[in-house]
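hi!! sorry for the late reply, been swamped w classes. u asked for the two structures so here they r. pasted raw, havent cleaned anything up. first the sequence of the first protein and right below it the tokens
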Amino acid sequence: MGRITNNLLDLGVRAYNALVEWRRATPPDGPDPDIRAIRARARVGTDISSHLEALYVAGLAAHPRLIVELGVRGGESTFVFERLARRSGADLVSVDIVDCSTVSRYERWHWQQEDDVGLGRRFRSWCEARGLEPRVDVLFVDTSHLYDHTCAEIDAWFPHLSARAVAMFHDTNARKVFRRRDGTLGLGWNNHRGVVRALERVLGIRIDERRPLTCDAAGWHVEHDPTCNGLTILRRTGDGQVP
């Protein structure tokens, strides 16, 4: 019965999206070649497509020298971060527990297949062995989406963040059915507020993940966008206290 219900839900979402896509206008291209490429990529609806441009813009503002991406999968965020890294002259470190070694050919891409918490705990020595400065300017987290694992990631990686760091978390509003910015729908899953609860623990605030939020908390400027499974961006405003 559950399988039949999921199939019917999938068919309903596909029919709705076909109607939306038939009626929607093509978004304008920007003058920046990276923005044009990212917008073109985002036209193919995924669980993160509505946030690709935001990842680039927020990362660029940090003037990064080192970018760390936790969670690669099909390379949607990697597509953005390799352009950000090339524009900034930065190194890009990507980590996943499955083999994603063919996702990027950026010459300063450092691929690591392992549990990201383990790498975070030994990141300083890992960087020293590769001649990298272990100060992370852009951190992106898009892995298991579970509360305990996200807390462990924050504990392992936040001590490596630089004074100008930006930390971005996807799936802070995970839903079985989610809406993209262009009006189309996608099928996801309910992670029982795993990621957003972990951020509430760090920030000491309550977040209504269904609504946009802009505030300052615990040394961070917080921006939360509930669209497309949710993206929450933290920018340092002061000490940026960590747990």
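now the second protein. again sequence first, tokens right under
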Amino acid sequence: MTDAFSLTRRGFILAAAGLVAGCATSRELSGPPATNARKQAERDLAEYELGDWLIGFKPDEPYDIPLIDLTKLPRRFHRTMEVYEGREPPGTVIIDLETKHARLVLENGSAIRYGVAVGEDGKGWTGPAAVGRKAIWPGWTPTARMRNEGPTLPAFMPGGVANPMGARALYVTQRGQETLYRLHGTDEPWTIGEEDSNGCIRFLNEDILDLYGRVQTGAAIVVRRNGKLV
């Protein structure tokens, strides 16, 4: 779930998309050139929205993934491999609400740790959950409550760099039923390490891309706060 204020801001950005190409700066960004006009338009939008956070692009389909200047994030939120001595089996995704980290448990006593943004206090799910399905550049449908809070929100936002779902999404299910919660990328990298959502877990786009390629549908998701399950 994503806050209505941010989506209202994105609505303004999308409305101004026709002007973005003329507003783009002349900074040289890393990565190969865009291969078509659609990708170039999304790159221009990313440069407009992300500003100094943007350092380049990783080729992807149907859009290229914006890459972020990691020096702007504390090192503790950088993706890293670490020793893991917990009881969860390989393939489990663990969300630590206190430290603002997600971990994917691997074989041989190791895990990959990612910095994330989590839900504001009291917002999120409790109890066992799983990855119900996975999506590439997902679209997003604001809830009725969000549209009431932000009347300018569209009924549906297609996938793209300004979509709050980012480049990839893992849909959270409980007892076989899809919830409103997701593990997903973000176009607001400055929120990593914060409590800044309505319960979804936000990753840098390059991190959710990494997790997406490793995690399986049906994988368990465990949420902890202060070392205890929630």
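hope this helps!! also noticed smth abt the second:
The longest helix spans residues 37-50.
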